[in-house]
Amino acid sequence: MDLQDTPAEAEFRRGLRDWLGKVLPDVPSPPDPLDWPARRVHDTAWQRRLYDAGYAGVHWPREAGGQGATPAEYLIFLEETERAGAPYVGANFVGLLHAGPTIAAEGTPEQRRRWLPGILSGAEVWCQGFSEPGAGSDLAALRTRAVRDGDDYVVTGSKLWTSHAEVADWCELLVRTDATAPRHRGISWLVLPMDAPGVTVRPLRTLIGTTEFAELFLDEVRVPVANRVGAENDGWRVTMVTLSFERGTAFAGEVVACRRALAELAGLARRNGAWEDSGLRRSLGVLSARFGALWRLVQWNVSEAQGGGVPGPGASVFKLCFSEARQELYDLAAAVLGSGALVLADGADGADGADGAGDDWTAQRLQGLSYTIAAGTSQIQRNIVAQRVLGLPKPGRA
Amino acid sequence: MDFRLTDDQIALQTGLRELLEGRFGPERLRAAVAGAGSGADDDGLPLWSELSDAGLFSLRKPERSGQREGGLGLGLAEAVLAFEEVGRALVPGPLVATELATVHASLPPHRAAGLCRRQPAGRGPLLVERLPALAVLLLPDTLTGEVRSLSPSALRARGRRGVDPLTPLWEVQGPVPDGEPLPGVDAGRLWAEGTLLTAALQVGLAGRAVATAVGYAKQREQFGQPIGAFQAVQHLCADMLARTEPARAAVRAAAVGADAGVPTAELSVEIAGAKLLADQAAVRGARDCLQVHGGMGFTWEADVHLLLKRAWVYEGSFARTPESAEVLAEGLSVAGLGHGAGHGVGHL
């Protein structure tokens, strides 16, 4: 058990820190979260800087245009960029962390040449068309149909929770190409051009009041067969391959962010007097222990992945614990803010305005409600832990 | 960075697990419980000499070739792995105090040591485990940093029935004598190490609670299927594991940090977090394990009660949850916060 950087890791960290120290002062402040085109510009400009400096696709294999870094080095990348306050992956999320790795692993040489460079340089933005109104946790229930017609598929259906759809160039799309096959064996993975005729994007207003996601309506959209990655009806397996790219690093940067946010919250509590409440103070301490342990769990999972093994005690254990700890952070923030937790930022006092009121803790608390739902609900995570990690039987199969 | 166990660490872990499965399996555990409180075996410490010979207490003692009392020269990292196994096996006795006295106070092999810290008011009576079996008592004063040693016979105490049948307790009556100073030992360090080793015992115990619950849930049938096929039961078990594994990572990381010379302030926060999470994992895990066992969990013979009772004992040993939570809160320094933007950014 060794938690210290190897000489190579220390060198990577030093180089990255130096570079971040140089470029971050020039990075413009984040745009209005409601201004999608501006967000795209901001996020892709950062990706371009990473690309020019040789930090694009740190964890991608070299033959796919990435840096071929080890999982431990990628963890250092996530840790250092977050710690330095670098821009979040944002609009590049699906391309860099999902569609790109899928194409790198399963695409033809032609498909890799066509799509990977644009993802790495930030030239093109991707969105994800997986979930549907009738296929949420049960993704394999998806019904969007693709019917072969010459060199095209004709695609009809609707998708949900498609973030960045308004500004995306491409969509990684799961469609049903064989309605008669067993559910997991009739699915294909397509690349949908977002400007194709028949694609309609309708922003979805979340409980925060903003449009973080969109619905995607597909009405006889023609997608070239050449845009299919992997074999026809093999899309489920193609999708799952991507997960191996995470190698224990999913949400690693967010753990760093949460630890910093918790320290900020403690500072706020000291200033506004809430710190005198021993129950609240100790709750902050307990949460600090949980985030600290989750960071160790990340290091463990990454170490196992680096050794070629199964990621530690399971990504699901981590996701389950982290989602709940993250929500608790913002509930505690509300306790620290008192009545200030009922006030949203209105721009008048800015995010760093009067202590408490006007801060964005409440918006974060609302955002946090999605954490136990998105990327696999906590109930699904518990099922996975129970059935795949602990080996308990599937329900109803006695 | 490579947080995986080394081959030597795996060998240590599996060697000890095999030894304990052979020497302290369910039969021996039950026999110890049956013998406890009968008066005959109150001073007996099951397995003590074997564990002493196996090097459990002298793992961290420096090697001194040719000398009888040399240790294995290993670190806290190895010690927590060993203590996870002993905790898992439910081996009773003052394991942690004996390790500390072996390492810091040259306690000879096969002997047992105790430890007590003056109780602040409002925390109940001052209790010492197995007082008559102890060769020495360590008295750390975390305010002055001084550690003193005391002959157990100098204490006036009366025997009490412990809630854990394998942890008989003596209640100290009257003042604790000063004892002799133990030079060169820092009380804060002793307390921190004891807290971490106790956390390792809890992690082992929590792991056993998960395994016991899962084993029972696979085998017990109701409504025509194993109860482990019901999501209500599955989610209890999943939560048990989800508390245990972060605690395990925290305990091991704190030990690695201590061996690597992490500064005291940072280390005390890590150890506080490890103990707090390990206590939660063990106590709540044992309760959930009992719940999964249904009515059987409430019986004497199902052994599940032993897990919970021991977890309570360890929860009350060394740093307790309120103390740890305060250390952790204090560790949330206001300095060096970096940028304010970007926290908690969500994505799908």
UniProtKB/TrEMBL annotation, chain A:
Domain Acyl-CoA dehydrogenase/oxidase N-terminal as annotated: residue spans: 9-122
Source taxon at top rank: Bacteria
Signal peptide range in chain numbering: none
Record keyword Oxidoreductase present: yes
All residue ranges annotated as the Acyl-CoA oxidase/dehydrogenase middle domain in the record: 127-221
Family indicated by similarity: Belongs to the acyl-CoA dehydrogenase family.
Keywords: FAD, Flavoprotein, Oxidoreductase
UniProt domain Acyl-CoA dehydrogenase/oxidase C-terminal: residue ranges: 233-390
Keyword Oxidoreductase: yes
Cofactor(s) needed: FAD
A family per Pfam: Acyl-CoA_dh_N
Name this protein carries in UniProt: Acyl-CoA dehydrogenase family protein
Automatic annotation (TrEMBL), chain B:
Keyword field: FAD, Flavoprotein, Oxidoreductase
Needed cofactors: FAD
Organism: Streptacidiphilus cavernicola
Cross-referenced PANTHER family: ACYL-COA DEHYDROGENASE (PTHR43884), ACYL-COA DEHYDROGENASE FADE28 (PTHR43884:SF20)
InterPro entries xrefs: AcylCo_DH-like_C (IPR036250), AcylCo_DH/oxidase_C (IPR009075), AcylCoA_DH/ox_N (IPR013786), AcylCoA_DH/ox_N_sf (IPR037069), AcylCoA_DH/oxidase_NM_dom_sf (IPR009100)
Domain Acyl-CoA dehydrogenase/oxidase N-terminal: 6-93
Recorded family membership: Belongs to the acyl-CoA dehydrogenase family.
Domain Acyl-CoA dehydrogenase/oxidase C-terminal: 196-314
Name of the molecule in the record: Acyl-CoA dehydrogenase family protein
Source taxon at top rank: Bacteria
Pfam families: Acyl-CoA_dh_1, Acyl-CoA_dh_N
